[in-house]
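Batch job 17 of 40 flagged for manual review because the log was empty.
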Amino acid sequence: MDCADIAVIVLAAGLGTRFGADKLAVPLDDLPVGLHIARTVSALEFGWRLAVCSVGSPLAQPYREYGFTVIDNANPQKGQAHSLHLAIKAAEQTEARAVLVTLADMPFVTEALLRRISSGSTLTASYNGQHAMPPVLFPRGYWAELLNMKGDAGGRALLHGAEKIDGSATELRDIDVPDDLVRPESA
């Protein structure tokens, strides 16, 4: 699929309960954790860029500066599926043929990985050698199922049949606790 036919989604409304603070605003190298994926995405020519942020997020304006439409999530406690619902509803208003779902707490995802996933023509997920995981390309035919998901699993239940694109442990690492902020040497 061509990037111009894809709406990229960054889910950035998590509560960071395991981290103990707003992990997405914590500095990592030269940017807050949650803006690394925005910078990476901005290098690609996606047709639409959507970021779901908690109301009042300090990252909302920087996302706009990276060319994202910011979608406010007033109820982040409802879990990742709720953020995904908000993004899918916004994507339905576009002509996108697919959405590429990324997570703001995965700052080491590379442009190359996003390109490989985006070139899929079917449900395509990153693969860490054990599990299919985000970033994930969901063609439009999957959106109704995504709108039926509940809780914090997002679209995980749909990934069993996904085409899998290998990603390195570094690329697919997320930030859950403060010790995760140490950049892997291979990044």
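Reviewer: the log was empty due to a logging misconfiguration, but the result itself is present. The radius of gyration is 15 Å. Unflagging and moving on to job 18.
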